[in-house]
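Hey all, quick one. A colleague (J.T.) asked me to put the thiamine diphosphate job into the tracker so the inputs and the structure tokens live in one place instead of scattered across chat threads. No bug as far as I know, just bookkeeping. Sequence used:
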Amino acid sequence: MTAPNRATLWGRVLADELAKGGLEAVCIAPGSRSTPLTVAFAEHSAIDVYSHLDERSAAYFALGRARRTGKPTALVCTSGTAAANFHPAVMEADQARVPLLVLTADRPPELRDSGANQTVDQVKLYGDAVRWYTEVPEPEADERKVRSLRTTAARALAETTGIQPGPVHLNCPFRKPLEPIEAPGDVPDSFTETSAAVGRDRPFVETTGGTQTLADADLQRLLQTLEAADRPLIVAGPADPTALAAREPGAVTDLADRIGAPILADPLSGLRYGPHVERPDADSGEPRTVYGGYDAYIDALPAPDVVLRVGASPTSKRLRHWLRDADARQFLIDPAGAWREATFTATDLLAADPGAVVDGLLEALDEREPAEPATPCSADDAWCARFDAAERRHWEIRDDALAADVLASEPFEGAILASAIANAPDPATVFVSNSMPIRDADRFGRPRAADLTVLANRGASGIDGIASTALGAGSATDEPLVLVTGDLAFYHDSNGLLAVDRCDVDATIVLLDNDGGGIFHKLPIEAFDPPFTEQFKTPHGLEFDALADFYGLEFERVAPADFSAVYRDSLETPGTQVLAVTFDSEASHRRRETLDERVTSAVENIVDGSD
Ligand SMILES: Cc1ncc(C[n+]2csc(CCOP(=O)(O)OP(=O)(O)O)c2C)c(N)n1
Ligand SMILES: [Mg+2]
């Protein structure tokens, strides 16, 4: 490794070591102090570089890419407030376990607290939100220091994808010259051949992760409890990105069949969509086990007695509360043994890899002599049959209410989410904004046998960074990309739209334009106006066609009844289209309420046996 000066050496060694460790992409925002890093990444052929103008959008773009791939994505910025603009995405990465590697350039340590320009306290800037923070030593052609730099790079990557994946922050002080210009004596020729400078033809430190498994006796006890249950249930919450990338939903559906448990699959669980959703013998009349409409009918069903839970807390508040109120044994399986459960419902925490637990349970069932045939949720099994009947009734009612002719007179936001998911190509990546879009995706996104990767920022649930996260996810795949966003979220991250062109991502952007935050109609504050309209709903009257034009995006205002056809066309058309659908958020909210009432009473009749 040669370099004209020590700062350039540092940048090159870091980029070299990160590439050897498997880093594939970095998002860079411009600045001077970060020059050694920027130049090194830009000249590295194995790393894709995405250039961004705005650090907040850059960070969310990197987050989206890492979320979609489950692999680390790096970020580079200069010193000062630039680094603070990464903070929202770092928070999301922490809470949603996204492998993000943050490299902030800094002034040399003696300039801290000295009044030097663009110098702020960047030490542990993100607090406890990162899995690991370290200050990279100042550049120097010193063998031990370079070895430590290579080890730091290897460790940083390993920490982002460890047992609890998440962000890592390396603060990197540099002194001038920052550009690759000759500084005589800085990096002696003799140094460039040392093993530290050259590195290895593999990562300097190869990290091998293990999988947490349960002891046999614990697995057997779990199996006995599940088998003894009258009303077993599997609840799959939002999946961690690394788990989502490696998903094998077939194992969970096998287990559900073997123990007679319905699966309640969150739209972000990786279990609601995919070929496993359809039984191979779909004509047999046997129920499917993967359910998605539960938010509407769950209150009308009897409580489970044993629950197996994987993933983060489910999106559906009704489901969370129903689980809270159930007098059930609830096993929460988390690879990091974390307590991600704000309703305090779990009775048992299994600190183990959910996939390994499921495989272990299946193996234990297989090992029985003689092997027992699968006992799928069957039409004779009252517990499963109730779920199946409720789910069917739910979608019948929804289908009627969301039909195009009904929408012509009664526009409804939920219908757009239903269509965006039902008509998404197979495969596709569908990113759903926070606020009502993700709630409507939960309620109206019917399970499908298509390979859909549905994503959202549900870690910290910000409405900032939505467009950037979606585009970052899209940058990592050749699949069609759909973004469904509310108008405030769209406005909030309008800077992020620059990535469509700069980062060459194609998307279909569905904009639910209800002129403000429709979600606030859900809350009691709705009755207090003022300040409801001005301070909560915040109508803005912004014209988004001008915004689309600014970023060179095609824009079309679509009538709700025409949405499905226009949406399908857009997905077959190259380029990025914004399909804006106008709604009255209050009317949509009332529609959600009346639909829920209809489904609940229909399901109550099923449970009573009167339907
Ligand atoms: C960064 C951030 N600021 C504020 C909020 C609080 N908040 C949650 S939803 C919402 C309104 C979002 O409006 P929009 O995107 O139009 O979706 P809608 O409610 O209309 O479905 C706000 C302000 C938040 N979650 N994140
Ligand atoms: Mg809105």
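Adding what we noticed when we looked at it: The pocket of thiamine diphosphate (ligand 1) is lined by residues 433-437, 461-464, 486-489, 514, 517-519, 585 (CB under 6 Å). The first strand starts at residue 25 and ends at 28.
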